[in-house]
Design a protein that fits this description.
With 327 residues, the chain is an alpha+beta fold. It folds into 2 domains: 132 residues, no CATH class; 128 residues, Alpha-Beta Plaits (2-Layer Sandwich), CATH 3.30.70. The chain has 7 helices and 13 strands. The strands form 4 sheets. Strands 11-12-10-13 form a 4-stranded antiparallel beta sheet. The protein has a 3-stranded antiparallel beta sheet with strand order 1-2-5, covered by helices on one side. A hairpin with a 5-residue loop joins strand 11 and strand 12. The longest helix is centred in the middle third of the chain and has 39 residues. The protein starts with a helix and ends with a strand.
Length: 327
């Protein structure tokens, strides 16, 4: 087996193969290519180049020859030297030297050596079995359309586009109009919900909120007492005289100011918080439900607003988050 075959074998496995006293053959990855004229598809490969400056013997080629032929390293080096002398002799007399499956070395008038790789061999192992594919050019026939027909067709397409565009705009705007109308009606309830949950943010300083409840009609109730009559009182059957009953004035609830500690959807959780606050010394109680159905729990309840604001500041300064509810 000659030296050219060993060089070719090593190029499959290594990116650089140095031939002492000649130079080094370097391989670089080359991606797949499409030729625009011949319409050929080439698989990925290794492109070979030659560098005459790589003269140091790294022992790769000599060790491979020694292993393949079962000879000593020194004998392999002697074979390499004879191979290089033959190439240099061809370059001196013929100005070109061919290395099978690798490429052709040539020398110009200035003594510079150039290299032309052999593109018939693909040294990329990942592209093994992939051949060059030639695909015929795709011919596209252009249709000749008369000018009146083309103008009529474009006008028709523009009308259809306008119609579809109007429907698209209507499909987008109608839901937005309906949503804005719904939000405007629900603004009051949304504001109430934000007021109920605003105190849950521990990082924001909130002013004391004053809640004004809805006006509830208080019906006056008349309580009739029993007719007090002495034994001497006489009832005249002809005039149906009855003693006038006593009337008790209606009870009107006074305005209360509550320092709210929290709101819960579950009454059990609200009562648990009341028990906890009572153990801490607060006069806590459940003060009813808000418009969204949440049970409110208050630290204290006051009949005077100034007292409520005073205790509100004390609770906020002690780290308790609360707000003022007028009810």
């Amino acid at each position: 087996m000659n030296i050219e075959t060993y060089i070719s074998d090593l190029l499959y496995r290594h990116d650089c193969v140095i031939v002492p006293a000649l130079g080094g053959f370097i391989s670089n990855y080359k991606s797949a290519q499409i030729h625009p004229v011949s319409h050929t598809l080439r698989p990925p490969s290794k492109s070979l180049s030659f560098n005459v400056q790589l003269q140091n013997n790294d022992g790769l080629l000599a060790n491979y020859i020694s292993d393949c032929e079962g000879i000593s390293f020194a004998t392999a080096q002697v074979k390499i030297e004879q191979f290089v002398k033959g190439l240099q002799n061809d370059l001196e007399h013929k100005s070109r030297a061919k290395i099978a499956k690798v490429g052709v070395l040539s020398r110009d008038l200035n003594g510079l050596i150039s290299f032309e790789p052999d593109n018939t061999v693909n040294y990329l192992l990942d592209a093994f079995g992939l051949d060059v594919i030639q695909s015929p050019a795709i011919s596209r026939k252009s249709k000749v359309v008369s000018l009146p027909k083309q103008v009529a067709k474009r006008a028709k397409s523009n009308n259809s586009k306008k119609t579809s565009f109007n429907w698209k705009v209507a499909a987008v705007l109608l839901p937005l109009i309906g949503l804005s109308t719904y939000v405007s009606f629900q603004q009051e309830s949304v504001s109430d919900a934000y007021a109920n949950y605003a105190y849950l943010n521990p990082f924001k300083l909130k002013p004391a909120a004053v809640y004004t409840p809805r006006i509830v009609e208080v019906k006056e109730t008349l309580i009739l007492t029993s007719i007090e009559a002495s034994p001497e009182t006489k009832i005249e059957t002809s005039e149906n005289v009855i003693s006038t009953p006593k009337v008790i004035a209606p009870i009107v609830n006074t305005i209360q100011f509550h320092l709210v500690a929290g709101s819960f959807s579950s009454k059990v959780n609200a009562e648990q918080l009341v028990s906890t606050l009572k153990t801490e010394g607060f006069k806590a109680s459940v003060i009813g439900q808000n418009a969204t159905g949440l049970f409110r729990v208050a630290f204290h309840s006051f009949g005077n607003k100034e007292q409520a604001l005073l205790h509100l500041n004390k609770l906020n300064s002690s780290g308790k988050s609360t707000w003022l509810l007028k009810q």
